[in-house]
Amino acid sequence: MQNKKNKPNICNVVKIIRLYNNITLAEMSDKTGITQSRISKIERGIESVSEETLRKIEKGISFKIERNNESKNFIDSIYFEFLNRLFDDDDYVLFYENLSIDYLKLMMSNDFYKILLCEFIISINKGNNKYCDDLERTLIQLNLDSLSAQIFSHYQAYYQYTLGNIDIAIQKYKETLTINYNPKTHAMIHYHLALAFKDKNQLIDMYKSINLSKGYFIEHVAFRRMLYCDMNLATVYSRLGAVDEALNIYEQCIKLMTNLNCSIHLKATAYRNIAWIHIQNKNYLKAIETLKIAEQIKANNQLAILYNIWCYYMIGNHKMTDMWISRGDKIIKDYPLEFVLLKNLYKSKNCPNSLKRLINDCQILLESLSKIPDYELIDFYEDILIELHVKNNDYKTAFLLLKEQKNRNKIQKMSTFFLKNRI
After folding, report:
1. CA-to-CA distance for 207 and 376, rounded, in angstroms?
2. Is the pLDDT of residue 414 over 60?
């Protein structure tokens, strides 16, 4: 029998091969002549393996298992390059997909879980939920090092976030921060936690998490991630009505984008967000000029179409309103309620009898927005609803809505004061 220090740690190898081939513990026992309880202990890493036992396993599953984990260095080189590119947001998916990986060979390594973890992260970002579920079930059963365990837990939380389970994701992110301390991992966790807080409109918590992650990104010179943090900080200020601060941050972001190889999507998003701030300030001409820049960078964005319809409607340019509605008929798929409401609102200028239907449509839309909740959009469509009630001579309801909106804005302004004073 080998000395303990020379025995190969094959717990993950045995389990991965068994799961990969859909072999149950009972079937594995029949194939190898080793009891189910002993196989289970080997897979959990609580029982060492003799050379004789190793040969029985190899014969039973028809695989040659690495004795010295020869593939470890190769796997680690892939794994840590992938993590560095993920941290910098530097074509990590393309990097991985361009690799030539011999999965059957690497599967014989106890560190193969690192390859599975890379694929789990990529599958989440691609929205391949079935493969994510399969990988998650496998990874849960494997023995991961502490860093990988934290990264796996982090992306389990992020997976829940992409599925819309925001509260579960937030709780999981918080638990994940306690597993290990690695500055880069903590930066990514805080960044994703901030996005979850954003969806819950917990703006103070979002602000704190974004600043924590930005500090890590600055320390490690991750310029793209710093840029994403600033874009989200601008969102915080915009939602709280601190439009000057938000506009200043967006302008700085646009300058930074010229020095970075940023996607056209990100550049167009920055300009659309600036246009949205101008719309909130009812500066429709400035919004239109900004939307033209966004359209030149990336045409036919659905939100930009909605913004253009509203801006041209508000300045009374019927020809351009008709043009953007016509484009929206062909393109808009993700915002059907919003599009129909704006279209009907425009047509109702000459049809007073449709006011009640429009009011009902607007209330349905606001109910759906309150579930997110997105207070910027809620304020926007409440303005429309108030205008409709005034047109319908229902001044009492319009006044109550206006009072509720002002109370909410008062709370937001108090939050802005705390942010400005870094409290």
Report:
1. 17
2. no
Q: What phi and psi, each to the nearest 5 degrees, are found at residue 140? A: -60, -35
- Residue 11: which of 62, 48, 37, 60 has the closest Cα? 48
Structure token digits, residue 381: 């469509």
- Alpha-helix runs per DSSP H in 127-202: 129-140, 146-162, 166-176, 183-199
- Using one digit for the tens of pLDDT, what is the confidence trace for 246-258? 999 999 999 999 8
**Average predicted confidence (pLDDT) for the chain:** 86
Cα distance from N-terminal residue to C-terminal residue, the chain:
64
Within 13 Å, how many C-alpha atoms sit on residue 100's CB side?
A: 0
SS3 of the chain: helix, strand, coil, percent, to 5? 75, 0, 25
Indicate the range of 143-157, 176-190, 278-292, 337-351 predicted with least confidence.
337-351
CA quadruple 7, 11, 13, 14: dihedral sign: positive
Q: Which helix (H) or strand (E) holds 256?
A: helix 243-259
**What's the length of the chain?**
423
Residue 372 DSSP class: T
Structure tokens at 149: 């365990």
Q: What local confidence, expressed as pLDDT, does residue 409 receive?
A: 60
Backbone angles phi, psi at 70, to 5 degrees: -60, -25
Q: Distance between CA atoms of 238 and 233, rounded to whole angstroms?
A: 9
- Residues 182-192 pLDDT 10s: 999 999 999 99
Predicted confidence at residue 7, as pLDDT, reads: 42
d(CA 404, CA 48): 67
Q: Judge residue 6's burial from the number of C-beta atoms within 10 Å of its C-beta, 0-12 exposed, 13-18 middle, 19 or more buried.
A: exposed
d(Cα 282, Cα 311) in Å, to the nearest integer? Answer: 9
Of residues 147, 149, 175, 171, the one with CA closest to residue 161: 171
Looking at the chain, the whole-number percentage of residues with pLDDT higher than 70 is 89
pLDDT in tens, 23-46: 888 988 898 899 999 888 888 888
The pTM score is 0.79
Which of 27-30's residues contact partners 24+ apart within 8 Å by CB, and which partners?
28/60, 28/61
CA distance 286 to 282: 9
Q: How far is 381 from 363, CA to CA, in rounded Å? A: 9
Considering only CA atoms, which of 63, 55, 74 is closest in space to residue 15?
63
CA 143 remoteness from chain centre: 27
- Continuous segment of H or E residues that includes residue 18: helix 11-20
